[in-house]
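Reading is simple: each integer encodes one residue's backbone shape. An example follows:

___
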Amino acid sequence: MPTLNLYTNVPVDAVTTSDILKDATKAVAKIIGKPESYVMILVNGGVPMAFAGTEAPAAYGELISIGGLGPSVNAKLSSTVADILQTKLSIDSSRFYIKFYDVQRSFFGFNGSTF
């Protein structure tokens, strides 16, 4: 159930969004060690955003998971997602924050219940 929410002030077209969704799904699943079928990625482009006082390309992400997160995994995820954003949207890694949430099963709903 890892879920990655990405917000950026860069407008994204359908092709770029699709590439980000595919690349991020594979990366999150591999790094956290969960099946791709459990991973959800959301891309929100064209969001009004300022970083360090400018509106130059920037992004913010939140990754939520039931387990699988920790210092080394989070560092790898941060680096990998930053690389995807650099490649697909030309967002410098110094203009990207990501926050990690390791949640309990009972705090995440699915299929009309909780995990």
